[in-house]
Amino acid sequence: MVQENILFDDIRPGMRYQRVHTVKANDITLFGMIAGSRGEGDTLSVPALGAFPLFSSTTTNFFPGNGSILAGHELKSLGWIHDGDALTINLEVTEKHEVSKQVVVQVSCHNQLGDMIASGPITVVPPTVKRLNRFDEPPQLTLRQHHVFAHLRAEAAGLPPVPTAVVHPCDRESLLGALEAAREGLIEPILIGPEAKIRAVAAKEGFDLGNARIVDVPHSHAAAAKGVELCRNGEAGALMKGSLHTDEMMGAAMSSATGLRCGKRVSHVFVMDVPAYGRPLLVTDAAINIAPDLAAKVDITQNAINLAHTLGIPEPKVAILSAVETVYEKMPSTLDAALLCKMADRGQITGGILDGPLAFDNAISMQAAKAKKIVSPVAGQADILVVPDIESGNMLAKQMSYFAGADSAGIVLGARVPIILTSRADDAKARLASCAVMVLVAHAAALAKEVQ
């Protein structure tokens, strides 16, 4: 769809434009944030003036279009908007002012019942240069809603802080993440690295190190070794990655002689808050196991299920991913998926509902699952995605972060202590969320030991 704008010189009083917009749940949330909302029976409704962004975007995108500038409005609410309403927006030019180069556009909005719910004038400065807007479909208002990590941080805030070995926090984000987690009462940071460098970062950024303990070591390799040592001797209850490569820290943590192995397969889980999904989504393994065999996938899956329990998901739905949803002998990932499901049937994997192979679309979309006639308790509503290998998992997680606006927390499970493993590109918000997940895991493990 190509929409050509209308220049000031070409606008005449009496010109009209009409657009129809179907209200979606995200619209209701956005409109409610602007004008307030209330429940009516089983539905949520908002005052019509909350849809001002919809009315104003109709002028700036369509009429007069690209290049228009809003100058003011006197819109009034005359009714309420509900999810699913079909709104007809009518615009008519009523005034044109040559000196100010402004026009007044009268707006009226009716719902599908013919009720007028909003009306009034909008003053617009029309464009003076011809431009095109190209839409595959008319633009929709969207609102990203993150809620998962706020809940997890609230849960973790009620627990004692965990002494945490923060390995080489020598850049802004890694040091800020540790200090903010300390301020929120999630961790007691033990900052391990070149002390001069840590203090220099703090001074440059204006961070208050407070009473944080600093363990001075010469470089990142020594910091990783020292952090693991503190976890082994009980001084720290968790390990947290700072500004060093993952293989540096995990090499020290996975050393057979001096590391943190405890007999189980170690695996990484991304806990993701995806605005478009509506529930926490766990992706594993996207950071540790490169090409896991069946035995490794058993532990990877069980680790993720155990984490889901800790996060308050009592019986997580686990989708074993592949490129297709049928078993195909030339695709090993489909064979592994089928075997994992049968192992769950036999009690070799416990605590979750497994299905696979499932392609990504029918794992998270009920519509896609129905289109492919997949009948499954997991399809379309997965809590956990078990990926075939590290490459697919890493790409999947990062696509959700960068394309779908997801927030993520990263944690390594199966070692003596939980390990907070984030990307060096992650901001302090992601590190804080990872700390909250770690606190819940650490306290759940401590509680389990007491029960034993």
Features:
452 residues, alpha/beta, 11-stranded mixed β-sheet, 6-stranded antiparallel β-sheet, 13 helices
- Provide the β-strand percentage band: 25-35%
Note the quaternary state here: single chain
* Major sheet: arrangement of strands: 14-13-12-15-22-21-16-17-20-18-19
Report the strand count: 22
Helix content: 25-40%
**What's the Cα radius of gyration?**
27 Å
How many separate helices?
13
What is the general shape? Answer: globular
Described by strand count, sense and barrel closure, the largest sheet is: 11 strands, mixed
Uncertain runs with pLDDT below 50, 5 residues or more? none
Average per-residue pLDDT, rounded, comes to 89
Distance between the ends: 65 Å
Given the helix and strand composition, which structural class is it?
A: alpha/beta
Describe the structure.
The structure is a single chain. It contains 13 helices and 22 strands. It has helices at residues 25-35, 52-61, 148-157, 172-183, 195-205, 220-232, 246-253, 294-310, 332-345, 360-364, 366-371, 390-403, 428-451; strands at 2-4, 16-22, 38-40, 43-47, 69-73, 76-77, 80-82, 86-97, 102-110, 116-125, 132-134, 162-167, 187-193, 213-216, 238-241, 267-273, 281-284, 317-321, 353-358, 384-386, 407-413, 419-420. The chain has an eleven-stranded mixed sheet, sandwiched between helices. Strands 2, 5, 6, 8, 9 and 10 form a six-stranded antiparallel sheet that branches. Strands 3-4-7 form a three-stranded antiparallel sheet. Helix 3 crosses helix 13 (428-451) and helix 6 (220-232) runs parallel beside helix 7. The longest helix has 24 residues, at 428-451.
